Amino acid sequence: MRHQHTLTLRSIQISFLDQARSATVDVVHNLSVEARGGSMLCVAGRSGSGKTSILRVAAGLRTPTSGDVAWDGEPLGELDSDTLATRRRTTVGYLDQGSLLVEDLTALENVLIPILPDGRKAVREYEQHAQQLLTLFGLADRMTHLPAALSGGERQRVALARAMVKSPGILIADEPTASLDRFWADEVIGALREFVKAGGLVLVASHDTAVMDASDDVLSLDTATATANV
User: Fold this and answer.
1) Within 13 A of 38's CA, how many CA atoms are on the CB side?
2) In whole angstroms, what is the distance from residue 220 CA to residue 225 CA?
3) What is each CA distance from 144 to 37, 105, 106, 123, in whole angstroms?
4) Is the pLDDT of residue 221 over 60?
5) Does position 146 have pLDDT exceeding 50, yes or no?
6) Mean pLDDT lowest for which of 20-34, 89-103, 140-154?
7) With bands split at pLDDT 50, 70 and 90, how would you rate the model's confidence at 229?
8) Is 205 domain-assigned?
9) I need a labelling partner for 160 at 20 to 30 A (CA). Which of 83, 89, 173, 188 fits?
């Protein structure tokens, strides 16, 4: 079992400038989360409720308007940009909602992107693991295909394999089943539960009731103040 990481969001507020109204809009207000390895937390809420913004804040990709984020008790706000980038690369796997891939790289090469900073030897060492993930997600015969030749659901599974390839302690996934049919959605949910079973921490945003049912807790943003502990 891997080291069990922790994720803490404390009194998070996320605001945007509405240029049309020349006003600041609070999208997320007073959000607190305590999560640890071996658990899966689903963030749910209507469109525009701030689910993606919360995931980006949790991943250290966005700075909250106010409040604190910590991985393993270490406040991200106290880290310089280089240290934060290094910690993110070694701690967090992130699946964005758009399942963005590098169009001139094959599916397998896309999965191996997080390994590139570690050098060619590391890429070779991780190649078999990357192939295993693609096979797990039904893409054994698509590894050498460019993204343009893949369906939306296949692209999403490639992006999820990329997020998981380094076996991160914290996996953050934005709508991981959105482009998938029910069979592959259930397979992805099963893979997330196996990740949790091995001691990983999953933070996911989803409209999928099956994802919510598979989670240890559901954080609803359709309330004035949201708090979760898992």
Assistant:
1) 5
2) 9
3) 34, 9, 5, 16
4) yes
5) yes
6) 20-34
7) low
8) yes
9) 83
Question: For residue 112, how many C-alpha atoms fall within 13 Å in the half-sphere facing its CB?
Answer: 23
Beta strand 23-36 with 227-229 is parallel
Tally of residues, the chain: 230
Tens digit of each residue's pLDDT (9 = 90 or more) over 70-106: 999 999 999 999 999 999 999 999 999 888 999 999 9
The answer to whether residues 210 and 185 touch, using CB atoms and an 8 Å cutoff, is: yes
The 3-state DSSP class for residue 70 equals: strand
Rounded CA separation 57/60 (Å): 5
Burial 160-182 (b: 16+ CB within 10 A, else e): bbbbbbbebbbbbbbbbbbbbee
Contact yes or no for 68/91 (Cβ under 8 A):
no
Q: Which domain holds residue 151?
A: 6-229
Local confidence band at 203 (pLDDT 50, 70, 90 cut-offs): very high
Residue 1 in any domain: the answer is no
The CA distance from 63 to 60, in Å, is 7
Q: CATH number, domain at 139?
A: 3.40.50.300
Tell me how many domains the chain contains.
Answer: 1
Task: Compute CA distances 98 → 53, 63, 176, whole Å.
Answer: 14, 20, 10
Whether residue 44 has pLDDT greater than 80: yes
In a domain, 144, yes or no: yes
User: What is the C-alpha R_g of the chain?
Assistant: 17
